[in-house]
Amino acid sequence: MTPHLQTEPAPVLVPTVAGPDKRRLVAPDERLYRLGRWGGHEGTPWMGAVAGDGRVLATSENPATAEDIHPDLREHYRGLRADDPTSLWRSTVTDPGC
Questions:
Q1: How far from 59 is each of 14, 23, 35, 55, 80, CA to CA, in Å?
Q2: Cβ count within 10 A of residue 50
Q3: CA atoms within 13 A on the CB side of 27
Q4: Shortest CA distance to 34 belongs to which of 51, 17, 18?
């Protein structure tokens, strides 16, 4: 993880929850404290701690699509549709401060 801790006192990451699987992880009105990125570049998901209980979730700015998955793994994820961002586990996030 590449640390990129927020300086604001209130949580800044706002999840876009698209589907029942994601609603089990986080509610649309919950906010996350930004901790950093999963990897070292801008395309990697943000890591955030949910305000109030500290659960750590990975989120990304854009929904994942089949093109994000290595070609050798696409057969495993054959139900993934590029027009259906709910078909992967990652939520999207809106963070105008980043």
A1: 10, 13, 11, 13, 18
A2: 19
A3: 5
A4: 51
Instruction: Residue count of the chain, please give it.
Output: 98
From CA 80, how far away is CA 88, in angstroms rounded?
A: 7
User: For residue 84, what are its two tokens?
Assistant: 């259906």
Three-state DSSP class for 63? coil
**Do residues 89 and 59 touch, judged by C-beta distance below 8 A?**
no
Q: Measure the CA–CA gap between 55 and 61, rounded to whole angstroms.
A: 19
Give the distance, in angstroms, between the CA of residue 70 and the centroid of all CA atoms in the same chain.
19
In the chain, domain spans: 2-86
pLDDT tens by residue, 6-27? 999 999 988 767 667 777 888 8
23-62 residue pLDDT tens: 788 888 899 999 998 887 777 888 899 998 888 888 876 6
